[in-house]
Amino acid sequence: SLLVTAEALQCLWSLALAAVDVYALLVKRAFRTPRATTIYSIGDWVTGALTFAAASGSAGITILINDDLMMCSENHCPSFMASTSMAFFTWFAIAPSCLFNLMTAVYRVQRA
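-> structure tokens emitted (112 positions)
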């Protein structure tokens, strides 16, 4: 359930950022203040850390059920494995955004 919650939070965060971007395009104004980039960076890091923690926990449970307990046929292991691998793919997709926003936030705070 942690994986589902983390991915739901990631989707909500991404939708919120998309709404802010659409609003910025409509009013023809960029939100690149040091405060805004810091908020983006913190949000990306929080959602990225939650996604990675949830994916790691799900991988551990899947390995426990599959390898140690040998109960994979009773517990839908292929769907667990697929969701865990997609969570790791999601985290790898988030990582460049986290790093870019962190570098931008540090640059903006240093210039302010």
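The mean pLDDT is 85.
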